[in-house]
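FYI - complex with tryptophan, inputs then prediction.
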Amino acid sequence: MTTRPRVVSGMRPTGQLHLGHLVGALKNWAALQEQYECFYFVADWHALTSDYADTSGIAGYALENVADWIAGGIDPERSTIFVQSLVPEHAELYLLLSMVIPTPWLERVPTYKEQQAQLTEKDLSTIGFLGYPLLQTADIAMYDGRCVPVGDDQVPHLELSREVVRRFNQLYGDVLVEPQPLLTPVPRLPGLDNRKMSKSYGNTIDLTDGSEAVVKKVRQMYTDPKRVRADIPGTVEGNPVFIYHDAFNPDVAEVDDLKARYRAGTVGDVEVKTKLAAAINAMLEPMRERRREVMARPDHVREIAVEGSRKARAIAQATMERVRDAVKLRY
Ligand code: TRP
């Protein structure tokens, strides 16, 4: 048996995955398989924290997302792919954590008030939403997860997870492992309109988009607004079209040439965008191909998730034995 350190990470199944997920998480998840024993899961209960009023899409997106993970290089033979709600032990650990954590700890997490202020169309004054980072702590601690690959927006959650584990251990002995964030070293991609990339803004390129959709979306991308004609010198820095070129176009010489001509006012947006769409499509095409193969057998995707959940559950059950002993709930 190898004892590679464990990585745990999850995604909420609230929609199709887009390029932000690919560069922000999925590529990194795939790379981590080399060095770590990885547990990647569909955080369907976490999706409920904000989407409890309409749950109809969650299970469908869960399987679609798993197909994207596999297409993106997550190997179900090497990594455990599972569904949170198929491992109900997560709920039990969450409950035990909730007994010892003061609510102000959770109210202080910056995303808590931010999200409540932003998502005004949803009532997020629920216990479930407040408890989001506690459930996340249970997800990780369940597998003795040491490393948690997350974006920088998730660091406060991880900080809280560490405090929660410390308090639990203070009360009941050394039962849970303190997790560390494993920061994903990628720049944040803006949305097509230069706002934050988000499904709710409709400014994403999805991994399921076909090549024509990509061409169309790239054509509508926001660029330097001051450059109303092709012969006006433009700004490259912070320009979404060039941020995307840097992220997706492997032909560095082509990108450098486009940047130089953009600055000089000797290239049209059409050329810059046509080359960008081609680069994105070249990168996505092998994933589309693999996704088509995977989705040709949807039952197989479900089996992978169910089988992975069975494996995860065996570990979770062992952890909960240990936890119940520590809490002295042994009958
Ligand atoms: N909060 C994470 C997100 O929205 C999803 C998540 C739930 C997660 N549980 C986790 C990530 C455990 C890492 C580890 O992106």
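DSSP finds 14 helices and five strands in the chain. The chain has two domains: 6-189+298-327, 209-290.
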